[in-house]
Amino acid sequence: MPSPEPGCWYFIPPAVIAPVVLSVVVIGVAFDVSPWSLAALPFVWLGARCAAPNLNLVNGCLAYVAFSAGLLLSSLHQPLGLAIVFGAVAGYWGGVIEKRLRMQPLPTNPEGP
């Protein structure tokens, strides 16, 4: 993964490939394991949307809340809670990796704004 340079601004495109691949995996798991796995779909996309390449806690707050809610819900209904947990975690980390790989430094303007 490219390491960010300090003091440099970056263009970070939204994650698209990771949530699409994870959505296909979730649909496949729903056919093989449990239909409750389909509950992970919105959380995959939420996690990928909230991911930041620098693992910023503020940007990933919704993914962390979904993860915590899934853990609490798994004590009441384990298949649904685990689908939410795995969807949020997989989407978040997939988004982090994709955004980190696709980020590009913005060109600097030597004359100023």
Task: Write up what this structure looks like.
- This protein has 4 helices and 2 strands.
- It has 113 residues and is mostly helical.
- A two-stranded antiparallel sheet has the order 1-2.
- The longest helix has 25 residues, at 78-102.
- It is elongated and about 55 Å long.
- The relative contact order is 0.23.
Task: Kindly list the characteristics that best describe this protein.
single chain, 113 residues, mainly alpha, two-stranded antiparallel sheet, 2 strands, 58% helix, 4% strand
Give the secondary structure arrangement, pairings included.
Blueprint: E1 10-11, H1 17-32, H2 41-50, H3 61-74, H4 78-102, E2 104-105
Antiparallel strand pairs: 1-2
Helix pairs in contact: 1-2, 1-4, 2-3, 2-4, 3-4
Mean pLDDT across every amino acid position: 89
Helix content: 55-70%
What is the overall silhouette?
Answer: elongated
- The secondary-structure class comes to mainly alpha
Order of helices and strands: EHHHHE
Number of strands: 2
- Give the amount of beta strand, in percent: under 5%
Spans where pLDDT lies below 50 across 5 or more residues: none
Please describe the biggest sheet, giving its number of strands, its sense, and whether it closes into a barrel.
2 strands, antiparallel
**Total count of helical runs of at least 4 residues:** 4
Strand order of the largest sheet: 1-2
Terminal Cα span: 30 Å
Rg over CA atoms, rounded to whole Å, is 17 Å
